[in-house]
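assembly run, all chains below
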Amino acid sequence: MNRADSFGGSCPVPLGDQPCIKLAHGGGGRLMQQLIEEVFIAAFDNAVLRGGHDGAILDLQNGRTVVTTDSFVVRPLFFPGGDIGTLAINGTVNDLAMCGAKPLFLTSSFILEEGLEIETLWRVVQSMRKAADAAGVLIVTGDTKVVERGHGDGIYINTTGIGCVDHSLFVSPPRIATGDTILVSGDIGRHGMAVMGTREGLAFTTQIESDCAPLWSTVEALLEAGLEIHCLRDATRGGLCSVLNELAQDASLQFDVVENDVPVMPNVRGACEVLGLDVLQVACEGRFVAILPKNESVLALEILKAQNEFAAMIGHVSSAQAGLVTLQTPIGSQRILDMPAGELLPRIC
Amino acid sequence: MKYIDEYRDPQSTRKYAEAIAQLVTRPWTIMEVCGGQTHSIVRFGIQDLLPDEIELVHGPGCPVCVTPVDMVDKAIEIASYSDVIFCSFGDMMRVPGSKSDLTRVRARGGDLRAVYTPLDAVKIAAANPQKQVVFFAVGFETTAPANAMAVYLAKKQGLKNFSVLVSHVLVPPAMKAILSSPDNTVQGFLAAGHVCTVMGTHAYTSLADTYHVPIVVTGFEPLDILQGIYMCVRQLEDGSATVENQYERAVQDDGNTQAQDLIEKVFRVIPRKWRGIGTIPESGWALSDEYSSFDAQQRFKLAEAATEEHTECLSGKVLQGLKKPADCPAFGVTCTPENPLGATMVSGEGACAAYYRYRKERVV
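ok done. output:
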């Protein structure tokens, strides 16, 4: 049993009986040392991290190496189906997976706000450890800074991920080709509505849980089946709508999507209807778009459905107009699916 | 999803579209009054299903769009005060005033909160007695009951730190103004379903009689709108001009009388300035004398200031159905949802924003 397990689910509350983060926890002295040892190393324990060096010295496997970085700011820190810790791990390992890379190592930097309860930090760190275990990655180095009260939202986290590509495919937008099929790996919009529901105190009749999850095992299954994956991208901020527009622009091709084929849970759809939000623009944290040749799409869908029964084919790629995404509406007419403007603001009535 | 999918059924919508095509013998111009209807029409591409003879023009029923610039400027001024928590419906936040908008006030440190109901603003006031909490009470008859309830409750609770910046507008006087205009082209109306849920349908009878226009109270889903158009065209072709109710599942002729009683207690009718249109007599609500102490304009002693619209923006004409968004040279060029010149480009219900977002061709 490692140290983290011995603490069970609650904070060790060591740290010289300090219940809250103080500026001194980022000041490089004894308090910071305690924080690192008794919270971070305790939770993330592994040989590289225990080395305690200024950086992590890694043995990378053969093949190409992929590096990605992402910062996480979310209010509230905890929401149904996850918290900022699960997001910080899954967000970065998913970016690696979308490059076709097996996630191996993560760095983790924290910006903490003075006054943050250490119990809260402990819960987040525990979530990170569980998510890292589930994704099969090690957190090998990190950093901690503390900002004055009022200058942060409790916790900001940056994670950088390193992964390796041990196959010959180049999974990237330029590989997308006319005639390809567009698939989505599950129902969309859960994360955004779960966070909005919690943040705004909206009482939905059924609780909406975030879809926050690691995606590598699904991608790995597609790769192991020998499918010629052209492109993958996870639908995070801006939702499916942003991903489709970004990829259509990057590939200089047209995407034609059928709105009725996009899987959405009734509670998510209901919440979006009530708030006047377009579910296609609502964030996911555990869903991705896969684009591959049409003749491989049936097998790909079968593999995706084995992981998530709501996976679906939602459209295809054509060469009509570079960078355009069209949507067939539920009543059968066609329109442009435009890039979202930015902040999602509910309508008045 | 129940009560949604039935009204978006492709076969039924097509049948209604065909029925309209069989009915129509000559061109007709029909205005849908409400921004929610405009949004649906453009989002679902309903105009494409209609015969060429039917032209839909988009009415002034977007509350975000018609809130005058000087009122947005007042909101920005109040929201900038350090002791104020300013609460607003989400889509008012990006509406451009003459120099700034509310999101920029927030970026500079103002305490702005997007609320889903004005009652949340009352709760915020109760929880923050050291702060002045102001709610931006905009909207048509639809939002008025909840806004009135917020003021009513604040008075009942004796809250001294709650006030409202009221910019309420009324649909029938705006329809009257459109019909009285020498430039008017509208021959029939789809009246705003949810406005009538509150106020009922009686106010429209005299409009239909006086101006000899058919008025069909209509819902918001594709099938509602097509059925509303069908009923309107049937009247136009018959030469009749009465008030009909397509949206029977939500609208009763008398409306919601309890809500009306509350509105009458809290508000009084006044002339109101509409963005892009100008002042329309008896077209708005302000707080009644009994509730005037909750008026943010009085509490913060705001001066009236002359404001000007962007010269390039045609939103006033768009709101009156005299121009279509694409007629504006700025549309999609210098005016986009990211950088709106006028309010019709801001709200999802604004005709320009709906046209831009759901357009069929790219703007060059």
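The first strand of chain A starts at residue 64 and ends at 72.

Chain A has two domains: 3-165, 173-336.

not gonna interpret more than that til we talk
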